[in-house]
Design brief:
The chain is built from seven helices and six strands. Helix content is 34%, strand content 17%. Helix 6 (122-137) crosses helix 7 (150-160). The longest helix has 16 residues, at 122-137. With 204 residues, the protein is α/β, with parallel strands linked by helices.
């Protein structure tokens, strides 16, 4: 199986550097252009099934992939973003001021066990990701696209590569990027990570 893991396009929260979890915000004009660029990239790729987070910033990208291929878009809670709780809409500085006890633990060796203030932990995301990957391994699809979010994509990379969840800090996953993996039995081949070759002309 070929698995294409796609991050959604830009939102106003991303542009402003604000915490964004479950709030269902739309794409910006640039984000819509990124979604269209992703769709064009997939025009020449064989894909049998398109999964997405139920949040519309991801679903919009999934529709851009699936629409030209006349494929249904399958929304699954397994791909929904980390619930950032009380950090929703805050800047990094505001988070440090409001939750001074959070960051020493979040930046420690076991960040997966640390819940966001009033929200989820990366361990919760890992549980959903593992469920999604187990479902894929049990399917007969040859090529699948999964459109999701920053933390979900990073945790998925850690699980595919058999890395500790703390390694999520080692990956840059840009908006509109595509990471590609070949899954054969228990062997994972990395074909690309954070591929944005389809996007440069959109950046200002």
């Amino acid at each position: 199986m070929i698995l294409y893991v796609v991050r959604h396009g830009e939102t106003d929260h991303n542009h402003a550097g604000l915490g964004l979890g479950r709030r269902d915000v739309p794409l910006t004009v640039l984000g819509e252009a990124q979604a269209e660029a992703v769709g064009r990239r997939f025009a020449s790729l064989e894909v049998e099934r398109v999964y997405t987070s139920p949040l519309d910033r991801a679903a919009a990208v999934a529709r851009a992939i699936a629409g030209p291929k006349n494929l249904p878009v399958i929304a699954t809670e397994d791909l929904v973003e980390l619930d950032v709780g009380d950090a929703e809409g805050l800047t990094g500085q505001e988070m440090r001021e409001r939750f001074p006890d959070f960051f020493p633990h979040w930046l420690g060796r076991n960040p997966e066990s640390v819940p966001m203030p009033g929200g989820e932990s990366l361990a919760d995301v890992q549980g959903r990701v593992d469920q999604f990957l187990a479902m894929l391994r049990g399917s007969e699809d040859e090529a699948v696209a999964a459109v999701s979010h920053n933390f979900v994509v990073k945790v998925m990379l850690c699980r595919l590569l058999d890395l500790p969840i703390a390694s999520f800090r080692d990956f840059a996953i840009d908006l509109g990027s595509i990471s590609t993996f070949m899954i054969r039995n228990e062997r994972i081949n990395v074909l690309s990570v954070n591929d944005t070759c389809h996007l440069p002309s959109l950046e200002s």
